[in-house]
């Protein structure tokens, strides 16, 4: 569905979000209740068991109610295409937020098992409710933690969820932009990537992940083959952004 609102800079909820970067960094939420509100909006308006209806309803909320920081519809189509190219059996997402990215992965790869890592327990609770309503709660698992916790979350993925050599077919980065590179290298060091693993990174221009982008450029044709997709920020057509899609070539 197309929505008319394409200028987030004219919206109060956008500026409220922009002024709450500290909350987002520490709590994973803007702080005005919009993340809980989108859950109730989905339960009231989306068809139960219909993943596409749920995605459409989240987009409608982000356009007409309160701005959200999930990947959104325009960039989401880039993610969809990358997921279809990867054809994953197992996908890993870093940064769950309201569960939107994991839903898009599950929709584009109907047989995939999706794991999503989220630092904020409240976001995990909200996302699980949305996934259950969409009918994919059995295919998406949210693990509360962060890859920067000294290996605890990585160890849990291995011990409790069976992560092992070459298991990750698709990796989606949409969490702390400063952690993109270090977290990717942590996953790589575990041996969980394989030749052909696809990594999608959102918000590489805004808010920006310069260290990650520089690394992918330096490794072009060596360890990684990267395409930079020029696009726009979430739920708008004014602010430019980049989505990087990288294929792992191996050491």
TrEMBL record:
Protein name, UniProt field: Methyltransferase
Gene3D superfamilies, sorted: Vaccinia Virus protein VP39 (3.40.50.150)
Magnesium listed as a keyword: no
Signal peptide annotation: none
Keywords of the record: Methyltransferase, Transferase
One Pfam family from the record: Methyltransf_3
Organism: Mycolicibacterium confluentis
Source species, domain of life: Bacteria
Lineage: Bacteria, Bacillati, Actinomycetota, Actinomycetes, Mycobacteriales
Keyword Transferase: yes
InterPro entries the record matches: SAM-dependent_MTases_sf (IPR029063), SAM_O-MeTrfase (IPR002935)
A biological process term (GO) from this entry: methylation
Molecular-function GO term, any one: O-methyltransferase activity
């Amino acid at each position: 569905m197309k929505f008319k609102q394409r200028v987030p800079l004219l919206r109060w909820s956008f500026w409220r979000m922009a002024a709450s970067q500290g909350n987002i960094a520490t709590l994973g939420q803007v702080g005005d209740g919009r993340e809980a509100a989108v859950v109730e909006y989905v339960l009231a308006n989306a068809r139960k068991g219909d993943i596409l209806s749920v995605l459409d309803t989240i987009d409608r909320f982000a356009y007409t109610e309160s701005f959200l920081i999930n990947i959104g519809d325009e960039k989401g189509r880039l993610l969809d295409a990358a997921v279809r190219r990867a054809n994953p059996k197992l996908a890993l997402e870093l940064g769950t937020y309201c569960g939107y990215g994991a839903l898009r992965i599950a929709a584009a790869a109907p047989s995939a098992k999706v794991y999503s890592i989220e630092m904020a327990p409240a976001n995990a609770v909200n996302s699980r409710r949305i996934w259950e309503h969409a009918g994919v709660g059995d295919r998406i698992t949210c693990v509360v933690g962060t890859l920067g916790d000294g290996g605890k979350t990585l160890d849990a993925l291995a011990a409790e969820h069976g992560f092992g050599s070459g298991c990750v077919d698709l990796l989606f980065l949409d969490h702390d932009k400063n952690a993109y590179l270090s977290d990717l290298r942590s996953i790589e060091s575990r041996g969980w990537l394989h030749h052909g693993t696809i990594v999608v990174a959102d918000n590489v221009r805004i808010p920006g992940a310069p260290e990650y982008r520089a690394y992918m450029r330096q490794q072009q044709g060596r360890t990684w083959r990267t395409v930079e997709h020029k696009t726009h920020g979430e739920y708008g057509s004014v602010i430019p952004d980049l989505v990087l899609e990288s294929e792992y070539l191996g050491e």
